[in-house]
Design a protein that fits this description.
The chain is of the alpha+beta class. 37% of the residues lie in helices and 21% in strands. Strands 1, 2, 3, 4, 5, 6, 7, 8, 9, 10 and 17 form an eleven-stranded antiparallel β-sheet that branches. Helix 3 packs across helix 4 (195-202) and helix 13 (397-406) packs antiparallel against helix 14 (410-422). The longest helix has 15 residues, at 441-455. The radius of gyration is 33 Å and the shape is elongated.
């Protein structure tokens, strides 16, 4: 079971007025203090840890060599007037690491405006006083594994959608009067599943305009079960039957003239018949009532099936402002091959074979993901995300990241960001970087902030407190070549909320060195 250990430390900053001589990103720190078997220190940046800011920054950092620690903290700036109006900031659990020359620090980049601080009761006799309570969690396993994949959608969505269509009666166009009961259904779905219904509605002697059928030689409960199987490939729950299950099955046997040979078991029908029947309905175009003109291609489909699977199509054909009589739709903003794959999924819950795609499979899946989002096909969205994760590589990660960012696919975006961080050498080739810089400059900044946690060494050489050296990017020539000085010299987060930064000793080219600051001259904790 996890256990917690609390510790407290007070950090006094004396001769505050002398800190005005320090540069931006320069800091003073407390003496180290031990809590929970780890050594900690408070780091105070009187001019902030980022250029062009009017705020002071305060961080809590792990200073001893260890693998990692899980801790929360409460950081308080004491009101020295005696009024008790202390300035309190706290955090939940945070992971702190100190591996080789890398360190994670958590705290507040925009802790308080300098002008506000200097005119407040927090500053007295040219001194500040910080109190920090650290709570370390022991016995808690911190997962290291990154999320690298998204599971495919659950099976059975096709049956669920069509069963709901039956129950909701949306777009129904045929009524069956079975003794004293009435059942509404859809001719194209009945025809897709039964050759008898297909001949009755769409055969040479069939009547596609038929609206009502009388059935007096079948029990209502049996017909209800028949419809349930047609729409879902499953029998209803046994409690929905009237009478015994064996009596119900005996009726089927008698009606279909199945010989009563003594057989102890019969294997169930093969799976996938529902998908097969509806895919054949799409390919055969039987009973189609809507045409899509997609650039130079034409696709025929069935409104009720589209509505059963997509809330967008449902609203377009059967919503309050929909048009159930609509016969033709023009689509100029989607590729024909993408729309064909979209229809294939709607009818079968599967993607077409890869040989049916034109161009790159991954490129097609990217476009299909956008189309799935447009038409509200959650199952297809999840399937596309899963496929993209399986095939993620340095050539496509930035375009996939852009799609995930634009359409708010948060899990896919996280996976792409982590992949880019782990494979930055390949991802940072000029073509890809130029693409994301031109297309989504804000996303570029967000990506660099994420990558910084692995490749960027910031401003904290913990063995020489006060020596600020803006150097040391691991493989910094790669980052500089791809993104220039923007990534090399700036911390990218500009929010006023708690932020985490990775900082370290820095062993790079020696750019932007600041003077050494002696903590003893400025006031010890």
């Amino acid at each position: 079971m996890p256990t917690t250990i609390d510790g407290f430390h007070q950090f006094n900053v004396n001769e505050y007025s002398r800190l005005k001589e320090m540069d931006v990103r320069s800091y003073i720190s407390s003496d180290t203090f031990a809590v929970g078997g780890y050594d900690w220190a408070i780091f105070f940046y009187p001019h902030g840890d980022k250029a062009d800011t009017e705020y002071v920054s305060v961080f809590l950092g792990l200073t001893n060599d260890c693998e990692e620690a899980l801790a929360s903290y409460e950081l308080t700036l004491l009101d020295q007037s005696g009024k008790g109006s202390h300035y309190v900031n706290s955090s939940g659990g945070r992971i702190y690491e100190n591996l080789d020359d890398w360190r994670t620090m958590w705290g507040y980049r925009l802790f308080m405006k300098k002008l506000s601080l200097e005119s407040s009761d927090y500053l007295k006799d040219d001194s500040l006083s910080f109190c920090c309570t650290v709570r370390v969690v022991h016995g808690w396993k911190i997962p290291k594994k990154l999320i690298t994949n998204i599971p495919p959608p659950p099976s059975g969505m096709l049956e669920k959608d069509f069963k709901y269509l039956l129950d909701s009666e949306t777009g129904s166009d045929i009524v069956f009067n079975v003794k004293d009961y009435t059942f509404k259904a859809h001719k194209v779905i009945l025809a897709a599943r039964s050759p008898v219904f297909k001949a009755q509605f769409y055969g040479l002697l069939g009547n596609p305009a038929l609206e009502e059928v009388e059935l007096m030689d079948i029990e209502p409960s049996v017909f209800k079960a028949l419809l349930s199987f047609i729409y879902s490939d499953k029998l209803p729950d046994s409690q929905e039957f009237t009478g015994s299950m064996s009596h119900m099955l005996e009726f089927f046997l008698h009606g279909w003239n199945i010989p009563k040979k003594l057989i102890t078991n019969i294997p169930p029908p093969p799976s996938g018949m529902l998908e097969k029947d509806f895919k054949y309905l799409l390919d055969s175009e039987t009973g189609c009532d809507i045409v899509f003109n997609v650039k130079d291609y034409t696709f025929k489909a069935h409104k009720v099936i589209l509505a059963a699977r997509s809330p967008v199509f449902k609203a377009q054909f059967y919503g309050l402002l929909g048009n159930p009589a609509l016969e033709e739709v023009e689509l100029m903003d989607i590729e024909p091959s993408v729309f064909k794959a979209l229809l294939s999924f709607i009818y079968s819950d599967k993607l077409p074979d890869s040989q049916e795609f034109t161009g790159s499979m991954s490129h097609m899946i990217q476009h299909l993901l956008v189309a799935a989002d447009r038409y509200g096909l959650d199952g297809l969205k999840q399937l596309c995300e899963a496929k993209l994760c399986e095939t993620l590589n340095v050539d496509m990660v930035l375009t996939t990241l852009t799609i995930a960012h634009d359409h708010n696919f948060s899990q896919l975006k996280t996976i792409c960001m982590d992949f880019a961080k782990e494979h930055f050498t390949g991802v940072s080739r000029p073509k890809g970087c130029k693409y994301i810089e031109m297309a989504r400059p804000q996303l570029k900044r967000e990506l660099l902030e994420h990558i910084k946690s692995k490749y960027y060494v910031g401003t904290l050489p913990f063995r020489q407190r006060g020596l600020i050296t803006r150097i040391g990017i691991r493989q910094h020539n790669v980052i500089q070549g791809a993104f220039g000085k923007f990534a090399r010299y700036e911390l990218l987060s500009s929010t006023g909320t708690e932020v985490g930064t990775r900082m370290g000793t820095g062993t790079g080219s020696g750019k932007r060195q600041h003077p050494t600051i002696q903590e003893t001259a400025l006031g010890n904790s």
